[in-house]
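Late entry, evening session. Most of the bench is empty. Finally got around to the prediction I had been postponing all week. Sequence below, unchanged from the version circulated by S.P.
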Amino acid sequence: MSHHRSRYRSVLAAGLLLTVLAGAGCDEPAAGPAPVATEQRIPRLVRQADGSEAMELNVSQMPGLTVATVAAKPLAGVLETNGEVSFDQRRVATIVSRVAGRIEEVRVTQWDRVRRGQVILSLYSPDFMTAEAEYLQALVTDRMSARLETNPGTNLAPALVSAARRKLELLGMDAADIAALRAPAPTVRMRAPIGGVVVENKAVRGAQVNPGDVLYSLGSLDRVWITASVYEEDLARVRVGQELEAVTTAFPNEVFRGQVARISPNIDPDTHTARIRCELRNPAGRLKPQMLARVRLITAPGRALVVPQSAVVFDTNAYYVFVVQGADRVVRRRVSLGSWNEHGYARIASGVEPGQRVVNRESLQVLALWHLAHGESS
């Protein structure tokens, strides 16, 4: 592919050079080796004071070439961007086994809706029986100490009860089950810590589990996040608490409303964008994680730099424009593009300044000459 692109640049540049020579009214005789004459007309590169390279080229002698001015255009009071729906991380819970044991009963499976406190599985483990026995023994000791009217300052029974209860809680036992405990048993019922949907299910009846094994992941969809990108030059128009609307392709006629909750402290150096986190109400659960959405923020009007789309060229892995300097020089500048809805124009996020003149029509031919000047014609 690179070989074909290189041949294209070579042919395009050579043809353009001959056109420039004809338009300039060259008086050189036709006799003589054509390649030598063409070689003498290859644009020359000049190192400028700021270290950048400029190419000597009289743009007025190139047929069809036009020049445009980088202009600042008014922006509408609406900022639109694309985003992706995800769970509100504060409304997600992972249920992990805290003991070694065996799953005896599974009550729910993936995509089931559960309510907070609902029993979702039963887990067998002798560790529960030991901890329950310690708790019940601590209760008996506490009652006996109370009847004997032991000096409160030296009575450790209440502390033992509290420690034994805390141990059961750390093992994953629910407070209501602890209160109803009457006799030690090796099986405990595990309950959902939040209400929501079973996002992930790894619990299989009869499976052995170890401490730290993930059994379930639950997520609530009552409120969700949409994470979107905003270009660096638009950040001044975005603030935390700002109202927004979102529309999805799945439900194009339904508008979801929310607000900006967080703005990333970092800028992506490749795209010159910052991430914003939007919180939205989702009572019917229509918005799903990984769903794409179009976000609209009502903002104060602003201004943006634009150039004609024909002035922007793509080369290798970036976008460029050719800035005209004086009457006989052009400089290639890398630019970052922003979102822009007006047909025929491209929004420039960085790389050029207002009032600068850039090559418009025939920008691809100038790109070919640039590569030819760098010896990239083979």
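Two things to note before I forget:
The CA atoms of residues 37 and 344 lie 39 Å apart.
The chain has three domains: 2-75+304-373, 78-88+221-299, 96-219.
Will write this up properly tomorrow.
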